[in-house]
Write a structure and sequence with these properties.
Dihydropteroate_synth-like_sf, alpha/beta, 16% strand, 68 residues, 3 strands
Length: 68
């Protein structure tokens, strides 16, 4: 089961109840680095998808052009 969230509390709830195997975080855990500590806490291997975004959730849709 995969969860797509940047919210620590949402991910923690899923981890605490053994409801998740894969974390997809569009902030690459920069929104809350405590998520990384949570991944290490449990004696379980998690797959992690780290994404990137330009700007913040309010501006990232406008920042879609890249020079390279």
């Amino acid at each position: 089961i995969s969860i797509d969230t940047i919210n620590y509390n949402v991910f923690k709830e899923c981890v605490d109840n053994d409801l998740v195997d894969i974390l997809n975080d569009i902030s690459a855990c920069t929104n809350n680095p405590e998520i990384i500590k949570l991944l290490k806490k449990k004696n379980k291997f998690y797959s992690v998808v780290l994404m990137h975004k330009r700007g913040n959730p309010h501006t990232m849709d406008e920042l879609t052009n890249y020079d390279n």
